[in-house]
Amino acid sequence: MQQSIHPDYRPVVYRDASADFAFLTRSTATSERTITWEDGKVYPVIDVEVSSASHPFYTGQAKVLDTAGRVERFRRRYGQSAR
Prior knowledge:
2 helices; alpha+beta; four-stranded mixed β-sheet; about 80 residues
């Protein structure tokens, strides 16, 4: 990598306030706010609206759509035969 053209890649805490969940990772994202992590160090914190702790797909609360019914209804409506 060329020196002094890339943003700093450093530890950052991402926090999902709706699920009371936070995780420490590395990122080039910046933030003025900080948080003291479990290890006692201070890291920048970035608040997110959705994370794996609050997204319906990952929490098992996702609704399964009847895609087979939709396909059959499309074929009936537009005259495509089933293969």
